[in-house]
Amino acid sequence: MKNERYEFAKEVYAQAGVDTDAAIKALSDVRISIHCWQGDDVGGFENSGALSGGIAATGNYPGKARDAKELMADLDLALSLIPGTHKINIHAMYAITDGKQVSRDKLEPKHFAKWVEYAKARGLGLDINPTLFSHPLAASGLTLSHPSESIRKFWIDHCIAMRKVGEYFGKELGIPCVNNVWIPDGYKDVPADRMGPRARLKDSLDQIFAEKIDKRYLVDTVESKVFGIGVESYTVGSHEFYMNYAAKNDVLCLLDNGHFHPTEVVSDKIPSMLLFSDKVALHVTRGVRWDSDHVVLFDDETREIAKEIVRCDALDRVLIGLDFFDASINRVAAWVTGVRNMQKSLLYALLMPHDKLRKLQDEGRFTRLMVMNEELKAYPFGDVWAAFCKQHKVLPRENWLNTVEQYEKDVLGLRI
Ligand code: RNT
Ligand code: ZN
């Protein structure tokens, strides 16, 4: 049957100089890195107790995944409702050690073999993060910048171990693994020494990245932050620190859009990063008044991020990962909503006549530029989104939630 609504949308966009088939095709090739930690409120499988490191998941919605089996089952449901084929982003604390306690500095690829099996069976990629929080040796709030050499060594060894795990993922799956280092280090109150901790962090990173690993398998990124809860006055791994470190040491910056001052936007940073770096990685999130990690919406800044990625022709140079954790709503629905919103934003960006708009800017025709940008908002975007979903055999509108609600009745509700 001919999809009349899509044919109409195609015609409307064509008049504006946009090829909807090409947009759908381009979006189909984008793998988004889906963070596993939305499924269990950043809990992990170590029974490590409370979440620490200045981040917080709030809410007590029932049904959170309590082990690998449950987390994978929940992820499967989410993946079945998300168009396309993606990557799963895991943390060291999601190692599957079959009941054995393995110290984080002693983790090996074999402790992640079940994740590889999971990913292989579904055509997914895997990304990795060393976990430098929710651990007794991170209790002081310092890890790679700790003044104690033995504590610092523990965390350096952990990060080195996880690079090996990442390399293993890349080799096994044939898709490069992003290994992202984020540390919570900082001080609640005005520090007496700002340079010392940063010098120690720099030295730790030098040791961690000393071994060169083939970029076909492993891509290292470093994630900056402006502040965390309890770490309000000083963050060791600031943006300037990591941007300089990355530029000089052949690693990539990861920009989390919850990690900047509230009126500072990551969308504006993307083209600058791309002029000086081969690639840039993202954690797309939604901060509400602080780095609250709310579910990603189809909102102005998410669309603006997507627009920069598309108009810089950088779908293969911006590594898109998500990072939110809302424990106050159905966690599977949170995943599906956030990923689909990232995809919707990319599609929206792919359906803009960027060359024409750029020309209007260069010619100083700002009235027409504004009018065009505004009118595009009411174009039949939803019909192109529906066609994309149909192509990937998922429901385009809110009906997918019925499946999640049924799962909540049958599965999540029984987890008490
Ligand atoms: C914390 C960082 C970091 C974490 C994850 C769990 O503020 O955003 O990326 O959210 O590693
Ligand atoms: Zn992040």
Question: Strands, helices and their partners?
Answer:
Layout: H1 4-15, H2 20-28, E1 33-35, H3 68-81, E2 87-91, H4 113-122, E3 125-129, H5 149-173, E4 177-181, E5 186-187, H6 195-208, E6 218-223, E7 234-235, H7 239-249, E8 252-256, H8 266-276, E9 280-284, H9 300-311, E10 318-322, H10 331-350, H11 354-362, H12 366-376, H13 381-391, H14 400-410
Helix pairs in contact: 1-13, 2-10, 3-10, 5-6, 8-9, 9-10
Zinc ion binds next to loops.
Describe this structure in words.
Helix 5 packs across helix 6. A 5-stranded parallel beta sheet has the order 4-6-8-9-10. The model has no long low-confidence stretch (mean pLDDT 98). The termini are far apart. The chain is of the alpha/beta class and 416 residues long. Helix 3 links the parallel strand 1 and strand 2. The chain contains 14 helices and 10 strands. 46% of the residues are buried. It has a single domain, classed as Divalent-metal-dependent TIM barrel enzymes (TIM Barrel), CATH 3.20.20.150. The structure holds L-rhamnitol and zinc ion. L-rhamnitol (RNT) binds next to loops.
